[in-house]
Amino acid sequence: MYSLPSSSTTDRRVALLVVALFLHPVWSFSMMPLHALQQRGLPFRSSASKGLYLSREESGSREAIDASEGIDLSLDPRLYKVRLSRAPGIDWGTDLSFSFVYVRDMDPAGDAAFSGEVQKGDQLCELTPVGGVPIPLIGAPFDLVMNTFVELDKSVREVDFVFFRGTKQDLKAICANGNSIQGDSEQITVTVIQNKGSQEEAVVTLTAKPGVNVRELLVDNDINVYQSVTRWTNCKGKQLCGTCIVNITKGSLGTNRKSMDEASTLRENPDSYRLSCVTFAYDDITVETFPPIKAAQWTR
């Protein structure tokens, strides 16, 4: 706990300023306006949603859950629902994509650990304020998930969580198969400009589901993202080499935020430059391959 010196009013003001400057990054990370976060992640689904959002009442040691809508838990046996307090004692985590939020750790005295149902590594799929509307969170950016908790009404005391017991890859696999638990009607457009400014300039338009990895989408469609010899010496999307550089010329707000490592790797280049292996698109974007890069990146 911070304690303020009692010597003078000036000392107190200085101490408050230091605390405010220290906490500013935390506030700016988790308190981004919800309308801005929705542009960068999965949209909220209204109470009139149809499709594969079907409910299934469950019973157990806790009170039976009776939500009118939500993920159909019968789609996969690894899906489960549990009712916890709005502050469940979970330490949430993601990989370098800052999406697909999962249970990184739990407070031993928290509601999640005490329930005996939640395990480390479980993927967060959905949350529903008791008596409210389900909020789909599969593949959502970390800051959208955190802001969802912040935006809950003060009257909300308990929340129905839907988790998936498996890896991110497992969850993406069942969404890619005809069992999409969030529906498959929504598509985004990724416009790719190749060899811009040369006689070989070409524009390719691709469609994909929100949350698609930019490198995977381009490589799967035979579009090269590597310059010079890095086409053969790259890390194949394992987030190690820093050579799959693209320029997001339009729609950058529709992608996940840069990690500190990515920002450091690209620090000599424009803010719109991204490492495609850690960039995920949630809205329409335009991507330029082979953008001009600084010397520091050429030999990476």
TrEMBL record:
InterPro entries: 2Fe-2S_ferredoxin-like_sf, 2Fe-2S_ferredoxin-type, Adrenodoxin-like, Beta-grasp_dom_sf. Coiled coil: none annotated. The keyword Cell inner membrane does not apply. Its cofactor is [2Fe-2S] cluster. GO terms for molecular function: 2 iron, 2 sulfur cluster binding; electron transfer activity; metal ion binding. GO terms for biological process: P450-containing electron transport chain. Keywords: 2Fe-2S, Iron, Iron-sulfur, Metal-binding. GO terms for cellular component: mitochondrion. Residues 188-293 form the 2Fe-2S ferredoxin-type domain. CDD domains: fer2. It comes from the Eukaryota. Gene3D superfamilies: 3.10.20.30. Belongs to the adrenodoxin/putidaredoxin family. This is 2Fe-2S ferredoxin-type domain-containing protein. It comes from Fistulifera solaris.
